[in-house]
Write a structure and sequence with these properties.
Elements lengths: L12 H6 L4 H12 L38 H14 L3 H19 L8
């Protein structure tokens, strides 16, 4: 019988994202995907049914910062009308417009003159 190896491989998240799975790994994933759920042995990972003591969002940290800005009423109304046509919340629409404008402007400003 072949002995299992316990070698630990350390990879960065970037290396993991760029890693291409081998043909054997892809074949194994295809076999698992084709297997019916009732044939999968989950005896070593019993289902959790008691969620007492669980804390939701304990380690959640939003990546965005919230700020308040003043906008002219006509601009807000125009954003509301356009966003309604596009089927999205007006604040999301304004945030998208701001993001696109900042990306566009960043290309115009030389990198060495930007101060962070």
């Amino acid at each position: 019988m072949k002995k299992a190896t316990t070698e630990t491989v350390t990879m960065t998240m970037e290396e993991i994202r760029k890693r291409k799975p081998s043909k054997a790994e892809l074949d194994g994933l295809k076999r698992l995907a084709a297997m019916p759920d009732d044939r999968i042995d989950t005896s070593d990972i019993p289902e959790i049914t008691d969620f007492a003591g669980f804390v939701r969002g304990r380690f959640y940290r939003p990546v965005t910062q919230s700020v308040t800005i003043r906008l002219n009423a006509p601009d807000i109304e125009a954003a509301r009308q356009i966003s309604k046509v596009k089927g999205m919340p007006y604040q999301t629409y304004i945030r998208g417009l701001l993001h696109e404008a900042l990306l566009r402007e960043a290309k115009l400003v030389p990198a060495r003159s930007r101060k962070v």
